[in-house]
Write a structure and sequence with these properties.
By secondary structure, the protein is α+β, with helices and mostly antiparallel strands. It contains 4 helices and 8 strands. The two termini are about 25 Å apart.
Length: about 170
């Protein structure tokens, strides 16, 4: 497969900053990543409480009423958010099933705690990102992985897009 390397911030595909910050090699295949997310919209539902309950360190955690961004005019987040990801960055040519299995290996041991958090009011989802050149690749999720996902809380969100290579 031919390889391309993203060399400048103006040339890589628009991946919401995921690939720009790290010289991610882009192959002819897909760029993928999965993040399990818990959001708390009520006052007592904090990201810190999720970390304590699960005993896991998140990739990122944000509390309600904290600044959304340091770059823009002061605006605060209206909810807490706890994120754990299958990898630090998007990865080239790694199937979503591989990412899901990585996260399942981490989260299945705390299944009961995840359900407790969901029943307490946290909203959960499995955010799956896949960028493909000309969106020409299929995403395959076999029955066993779907059964494993069903045992944990959270809907499956698929964010499927082109990799931006064909954009002018």
């Amino acid at each position: 497969m031919p390889r391309r390397l993203c060399r400048s911030p103006s040339r890589p595909p628009d991946l919401n900053g995921l690939a720009r910050a790290t010289q991610v090699p882009i192959l002819a295949g897909m760029l993928t990543k999965v993040t399990f997310r818990l959001a708390g919209y009520d006052a007592g539902l904090t990201a810190a409480a999720v970390t304590r309950r699960l005993g896991l360190q998140p990739a990122s955690a944000f509390e309600a009423d904290t600044p959304v961004s340091r770059r823009k005019a002061p605006r605060t987040r209206g909810y807490s958010l706890w994120l754990i990801s299958s990898s630090p960055n998007v990865e080239p040519d790694v199937g979503l099933d591989v990412h899901l299995r990585r996260l399942l290996a981490i989260l299945e041991p705390v299944t009961a705690a995840l359900w407790e958090l969901a029943h307490a009011g946290y909203e959960t989802n499995w955010y799956c990102f896949a960028a493909s050149h000309a969106t020409e690749h299929a995403i395959e999720l076999d029955r066993p992985i779907l059964q494993r996902l069903l045992a944990l809380p959270g809907d499956l969100w698929l964010d499927v897009c082109g990799d931006g290579a064909d954009d002018p």
